[in-house]
C-alpha cells in the first residue's frame, strides 16, 4: 500500500494537458468547465446552461436541495410570524384573516413544497445511485423533468399566494374550500402538478433499485437508506394520484356544480376527507420514511457497528408503507364517520406502532456496546430518536378514539405532528446533510458550530412544542389567532422557544455557507463509512460517480471487513478508547482494495490504466 | 410473433411481450365483445329493476354495480389490451392496483354504510322513543323565540374573540 494517493497536487497546465475527466482535480461540480482563456459572462453562461440542462442525478439533487431549502426558509419565517402573533392574546400585528392566510401558507408550503420532496429528492437523488454503484438513476431525463414539474407546481403555488392567498388550512376541507373566495383552485392545481414530480421520482427510484445495482449488491446488502427510499417510492406511486383525482373532483364541483362533496348538490363532505386522507396519511409516511433511512445510516456509521436487526428495519419500512394505507380514518373520528369504521381505523392505527417500535428498538440496540461517536450527524440522529419517540407515542395516544375526541383540533395535535415532521424529518434531514455534505461539496462543515447548532435547535424545539402538548391538553384549539388569558404564559414560552429553534437552524445555514468558502477539503471517507458512496469514489464524486463499476463483497455496515481492529477506525483493536472521545479526528479507513485510494497518481494524470485484481 | 394469427392455445409462452402486438382470433374478440354487451345490459336491467322495486339489493347495490364494471374492465385489459399474453409482472401490477382501489372503496363503505349504527341500538321501546322526540320538538318550538331574542355574542365578549362589536 505504498502507492496510497494523498490529496492530488494541483498543477497549472499551460493548455488542456489531460483528456476531459482525467484532470488531477475533476468532479461533477466543475465539469464541464470552460478553459482558462474564457472570461466574463462567457464563462458564466455555459455553467448556468450546464446546470439547467443537466441529467446528472448529483446536480439535480443539489438543485432540489437548494430549492426545498429555500421553501423551508420562507415557510419557516411564516411560522415565526405565526408564533409572534400568538405571543400575546388579541391582534398584535395580524388581523384574524391575515393570520388564517399566514398559517395556511406555512402549512401548504412546508408540506407540499418542502417535506414531501425534501429527503428523497435532494439527499435521495444524490446518494441513491452512488450507494447502488450505478452511474445515474434509470431515467436521467425523467429526473430532470420531475425537477421542472416541481418548479412549475411551486410557481403556481406562489401565484396563488400572491393573488390573495388561501385560508383553508393545508387540508382544503370542504365545504369551506368550496365556498371561500380565496385562491383555492390555483393552490390545488399547484398540489396536483407538484404531485407528478413526486410520482416521477418514485418511478425512477424503483426502477433504479431493481435494475441498476452493482454486481454483488444483493437485496440483503442494500443500505437501509435505499430500503427506506424503496418503500417511499411505492407509496408515492400508489398514493399521489389520489390527491390529484381529489383536486380534480374539487375543481369539477366548483366549476361544473357536480355534486361530489357539497351536500347542497347531493354530495358528501366527509367523502372529501376520505379522499384527502387516503393520500395524505400515506403522505405522512412519504415524509417520515426517508428520515428513518437516514437515521439507520447514521446509527450504524457513528456507532461503528452493524445495524442491529438489519432485515427487521428494512422490512418494517415496507410494512409501514403498506399499513399506512389502512389508517387514514383516524383523522376523522369527530368528522361524523360511522362508529364502526372509527373502531376499525383505531385498531389498525395501533398496529403502526409495531414496525415503528421495531425501528426505534433496533436503533437503540445498534448503539448498545458500540463505539458511539458524537459527531454532529450523530447528535442530530440522537435528537431525532428522542423527538420522534415522543411524536410516535403521542400518535398512539390520539389514535385511541376516546382520547382523540378530547384532543382533536387542539394544540396537542399541532405538537404531535411537529414532533414527527419537524423533530423527525427535519432533524434527520439536517443530520443527513451534515453526513453527506462532505461528499456533495467536498468541504467539511464546522464540527464545533454543528454541535452547538444541534444543541440550540434541540432545546428550542422542545421549548416551542412541548409547551403545546400542555396547551392542547388544557383545551387550546388550533388555528385560532387569539386565546383566553389562561394560556398566555405557555404561548409566550412557545414563541421564545421558536426564536431559539430559528437561531439553531440559522447556524446550520451559516455553517453550510461558511464551509463552501472556508471549509477544510473533505477526504474521500471522512466518517469511515462502509457504503459505496464513501468507499469507492472521491469527495465530491466524479462526473460518472465511479472510475470502475464497484464489486460489492460485503454488507453496508461490515466495518470489520473494511477497517482494522474493532471497526472504530482508530486502529487500537480491542479497547479502542481513543476513537470514542469527542473531538478526536475522524477515523481514517484503511484503503480498500480497488478503491480510489489505491489508485496511482499516474492513473489520475491519465498516463496509465488502473490495475487491480478486483477489476 | 405478429406473423400469423392464432388463438390462445397456439401461443408460444417463450416470446411474451417482446415484439409487436399479440394478434387475437376474431372469435375470441367477438366472444369478449358479447360478454361486454351482456354485462352492460345486465347493469341497466338491474338498475331498472331496482328502481321499479322488483328486486331489492339494499347495501349491495353499489358493490354489485362496481363488481360488474370491474369484470368488464378486467376483460378489456386482459384481451383488448393483451395483458393476458404479456409479461406476468404487468398483470400482477394491474391486479395490485385493483386491490388498492378495493381497499379504498371497502374502507369508505365501512363509513358510509354504517353511519348512525350505534344510535339504533336502543333498549327503549319504539313508541317511547317517538314520544320523547315529540316532546323534544315541542320544547324546541317553545324555546325558539327566547333563543332568537338572546344575542349569541354578548357585548363584553367581542374584544375577547376579535369580532366586530354587536350593533
What does this structure look like?
The complex is a heterodimer of chains A (615) and B (167). Chain A is mainly alpha-helical and 615 residues long. Chain A is 61% helix and 0% strand. In chain A, 52% of the residues are buried. The model of chain A is unreliable at 1-5, 565-586 and 589-604 (pLDDT under 50). By secondary structure, chain B is an all-alpha fold. Helices cover 62% and strands 0% of the residues of chain B. In chain B, helix 1 (26-52) packs antiparallel against helix 2. Chain B is elongated. Chain B starts with 25 loop residues before the first helix and ends in a 6-residue tail after the last helix. Chains A and B meet through helix 8 and helix 10 of A and helix 3 and helix 6 of B.
Notable traits:
heterodimer; A: 615 residues; mainly alpha; 18 helices; disordered N terminus; B: 6 helices
Give me the secondary-structure topology:
The complex is a heterodimer of chains A (615) and B (167).
Chain A: H1 41-52, H2 57-85, H3 96-132, H4 140-162, H5 176-179, H6 184-211, H7 224-256, H8 269-303, H9 310-323, H10 339-367, H11 376-399, H12 401-407, H13 411-441, H14 447-473, H15 488-518, H16 532-535, H17 559-562, H18 601-604
Chain B: H1 26-52, H2 61-80, H3 88-112, H4 117-120, H5 126-149, H6 158-161
Helix pairs in contact in B: 1-2
Summary?
The complex is a heterodimer of chains A (615) and B (167). Chain A is mainly alpha-helical. Chain A is built from 18 helices and no strands.
Amino acid at each position: 500500500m505504498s502507492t496510497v494517493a494523498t490529496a492530488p497536487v494541483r498543477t497549472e497546465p499551460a493548455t488542456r494537458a489531460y483528456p476531459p475527466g482525467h484532470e488531477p482535480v475533476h468532479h461533477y461540480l466543475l465539469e464541464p468547465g470552460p478553459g482558462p482563456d474564457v472570461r466574463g459572462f462567457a464563462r458564466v453562461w455555459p455553467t448556468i446552461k450546464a446546470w439547467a440542462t443537466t441529467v446528472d442525478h448529483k446536480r439535480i439533487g443539489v438543485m432540489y436541495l437548494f430549492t426545498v431549502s429555500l421553501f423551508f426558509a420562507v415557510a419557516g419565517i411564516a411560522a415565526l410570524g405565526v408564533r409572534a402573533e400568538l405571543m400575546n392574546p388579541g391582534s398584535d400585528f395580524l388581523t384574524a384573516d391575515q393570520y388564517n392566510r399566514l398559517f395556511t401558507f406555512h402549512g401548504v408550503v412546508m408540506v407540499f413544497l418542502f417535506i414531501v420532496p425534501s429527503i428523497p429528492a435532494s439527499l435521495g437523488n444524490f446518494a441513491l445511485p452512488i450507494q447502488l454503484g450505478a452511474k445515474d438513476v434509470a431515467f436521467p431525463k425523467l429526473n430532470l423533468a420531475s425537477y421542472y414539474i416541481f418548479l412549475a407546481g411551486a410557481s403556481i403555488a406562489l401565484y396563488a399566494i400572491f393573488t390573495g392567498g388561501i385560508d383553508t388550512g393545508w387540508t382544503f376541507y370542504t365545504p369551506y374550500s368550496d365556498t371561500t373566495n380565496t385562491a383555492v383552485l390555483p393552490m390545488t392545481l399547484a398540489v396536483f402538478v407538484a404531485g407528478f414530480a413526486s410520482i416521477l421520482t418514485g418511478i425512477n427510484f424503483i426502477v433504479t433499485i431493481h435494475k441498476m445495482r452493482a454486481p454483488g449488491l444483493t437485496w440483503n446488502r442494500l443500505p437501509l437508506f435505499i430500503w427506506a427510499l424503496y418503500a417511499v417510492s411505492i407509496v408515492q406511486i400508489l398514493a399521489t394520484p389520489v390527491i390529484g383525482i381529489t383536486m380534480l373532483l374539487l375543481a369539477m364541483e366548483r366549476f361544473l356544480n357536480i355534486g361530489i362533496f357539497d351536500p347542497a348538490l347531493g354530495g358528501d363532505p366527509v367523502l372529501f376527507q376520505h379522499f384527502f386522507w387516503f393520500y395524505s396519511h400515506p403522505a405522512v409516511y412519504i415524509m417520515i420514511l426517508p428520515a428513518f433511512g437516514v437515521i439507520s445510516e447514521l446509527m450504524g456509521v457513528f456507532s461503528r457497528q452493524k445495524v442491529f436487526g438489519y432485515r427487521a428495519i428494512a422490512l418494517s419500512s415496507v410494512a409501514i408503507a403498506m399499513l399506512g394505507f389502512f389508517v387514514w380514518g383516524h383523522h376523522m373520528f369527530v368528522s361524523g364517520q360511522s362508529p364502526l369504521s372509527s373502531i376499525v381505523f383505531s385498531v389498525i392505527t395501533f398496529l403502526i406502532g409495531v414496525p415503528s417500535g421495531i425501528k426505534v428498538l433496533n436503533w437503540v440496540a445498534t448503539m448498545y456496546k458500540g463505539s458511539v461517536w458524537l459527531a454532529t450527524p450523530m447528535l442530530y440522529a440522537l435528537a431525532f430518536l428522542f423527538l420522534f419517540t415522543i411524536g410516535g407515542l403521542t400518535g398512539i395516544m390520539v389514535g385511541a378514539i376516546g382520547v382523540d375526541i378530547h384532543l382533536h383540533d387542539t394544540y396537542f395535535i399541532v405538537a404531535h405532528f411537529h414532533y414527527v415532521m419537524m423533530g423527525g424529518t427535519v432533524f434527520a434531514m439536517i443530520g443527513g446533510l451534515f453526513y453527506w455534505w462532505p461528499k456533495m461539496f467536498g468541504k467539511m462543515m464546522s464540527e464545533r458550530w454543528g454541535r452547538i447548532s444541534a444543541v440550540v435547535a434541540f432545546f428550542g424545539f422542545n421549548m416551542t412544542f412541548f409547551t403545546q402538548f400542555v396547551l392542547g391538553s388544557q383545551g387550546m384549539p388550533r388555528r385560532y389567532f387569539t386565546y383566553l388569558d389562561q394560556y398566555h404564559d405557555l404561548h409566550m414560552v412557545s414563541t421564545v422557544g421558536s426564536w431559539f429553534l430559528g437561531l439553531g437552524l440559522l447556524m446550520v445555514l451559516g455553517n453550510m455557507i461558511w464551509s463552501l468558502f472556508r471549509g477544510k477539503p473533505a477526504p474521500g471517507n471522512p466518517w469511515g463509512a462502509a457504503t459505496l458512496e464513501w468507499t469507492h469514489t472521491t469527495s465530491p464524486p466524479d462526473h460518472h460517480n465511479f472510475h470502475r463499476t464497484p464489486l460489492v463483497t460485503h454488507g453496508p455496515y461490515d466495518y470489520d471487513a473494511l477497517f482494522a481492529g474493532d471497526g472504530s477506525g482508530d486502529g487500537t483493536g480491542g479497547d479502542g478508547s481513543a476513537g470514542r472521545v469527542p473531538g478526536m479526528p475522524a477515523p481514517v479507513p484503511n484503503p480498500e482494495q480497488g478503491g480510489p485510494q489505491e489508485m496511482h497518481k499516474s492513473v489520475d494524470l491519465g498516463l496509465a490504466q488502473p490495475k487491480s485484481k478486483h477489476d | 410473433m405478429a406473423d400469423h394469427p392464432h388463438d390462445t392455445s397456439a401461443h408460444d409462452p417463450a416470446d411474451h411481450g417482446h415484439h409487436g402486438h399479440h394478434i387475437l382470433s376474431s372469435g375470441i374478440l367477438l366472444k369478449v365483445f358479447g360478454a361486454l354487451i351482456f354485462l352492460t345490459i345486465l347493469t341497466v336491467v338491474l338498475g331498472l329493476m331496482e328502481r321499479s322495486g322488483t328486486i331489492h339489493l339494499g347495501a349491495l347495490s353499489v358493490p354489485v354495480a362496481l363488481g360488474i364494471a370491474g369484470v368488464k374492465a378486467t376483460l378489456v385489459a386482459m384481451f383488448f389490451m393483451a395483458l393476458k399474453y404479456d409479461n406476468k409482472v404487468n398483470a400482477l401490477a394491474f391486479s395490485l392496483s385493483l386491490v388498492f382501489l378495493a381497499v379504498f372503496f371497502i374502507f369508505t363503505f365501512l363509513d358510509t354504510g354504517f353511519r348512525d349504527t350505534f344510535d339504533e341500538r336502543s333498549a327503549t321501546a319504539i313508541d317511547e322513543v317517538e314520544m320523547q322526540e315529540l316532546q323534544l320538538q315541542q320544547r324546541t318550538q317553545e324555546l325558539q323565540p327566547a333563543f332568537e331574542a338572546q344575542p349569541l355574542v354578548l357585548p363584553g365578549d367581542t374584544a375577547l374573540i376579535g369580532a366586530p362589536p354587536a350593533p
